[in-house]
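sry for the spam today, last one i promise. struct tokens for design, 95 residues
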């Protein structure tokens, strides 16, 4: 059985932030993305949105589709295997 797909927040933390030595604040500032929303994504409490997918794609020379597909794969696996109860709060304040 294949391993479950990663949540985009986990991928960002493990594959981007850790190797580059980036803090959450540094990444949020670099991407002009709200700090609280970045924390929620990294904690897997928020889904990847199109705005962040575009910003990550441009910043790290990747496509936005990569990020959206990763989120879709994570959610589809979770629903099919009933491994995660989604309690995303994508209405969080963006101030």
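last one done:
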């Amino acid at each position: 059985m294949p391993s479950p797909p990663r949540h985009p927040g986990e991928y960002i933390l493990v594959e981007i932030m850790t190797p580059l030595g980036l803090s959450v604040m540094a990444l949020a500032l670099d991407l002009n993305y709200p700090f609280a929303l970045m924390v929620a994504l990294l904690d897997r409490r928020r889904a990847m949105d199109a705005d962040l997918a575009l910003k990550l794609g441009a910043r790290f020379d990747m496509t936005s589709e990569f990020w959206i597909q990763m989120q879709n794969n994570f959610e589809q696996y979770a629903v099919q295997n009933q491994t995660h109860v989604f309690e995303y709060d994508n209405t969080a304040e963006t101030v």
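The longest helix spans residues 64-81. ok im logging off now
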